[in-house]
Amino acid sequence: MGPDPISLVNHARRDLQTAMNLMISYERTRDAAVLSNIVKLSLSIYDNAINAFLAVKGIRVRYPDGLGQVIRDFIPSDVVNADLRDSLVKCLSQSECNADFISARIRELGRLVDYVHSVSTHSVIHRGL
Fold it and tell me: Which of 26, 48, 109, 114 could form a disulfide with 12 if both were Cys (CB 3.0 to 4.6 A apart)?
């Protein structure tokens, strides 16, 4: 059995708050290292939220390449873009990634974490996870 979905969501929510605080710090300092740390933390938030979702739904993904398709099939597009992780990875490897882009991704991650939280708590209530 994998990690507890509620714990993963709680970690994602805590990290999301940390990312928002780091964003405020970045706006004051314009330190590129802070922006890089925000992107790295964003990847962790995404991974925790998606892993919680997969655990709650009982979905197993054998190959990481199939994860995008699972997201397209099971998570509404108004919640998260299926290419969010790829865009964060690309941002991490490029120097032209800017604060506006990261800020928009953090908002998107917030919607994802909220969605996964609601799915997780609904599952706990009905299945007693």
Answer: 48
Q: Which residue bears the tokens 């802070």?
A: 34
Kindly report the pTM of this predicted structure: 0.88
Per residue in 83-121, pLDDT (tens digit) is: 999 999 999 888 668 899 999 999 999 999 999 999 988
Is residue 41 within 8 A of residue 18, CB to CB? The reply is: yes
End-to-end CA distance of the chain: give it in Å, rounded: 12
The dihedral sign for the CA sequence 31, 89, 50, 114? positive
Residue 66 tokens, joined: 């199939």
Q: Residue 64 burial (CB < 10 Å; 0-12/13-18/19+)?
A: exposed
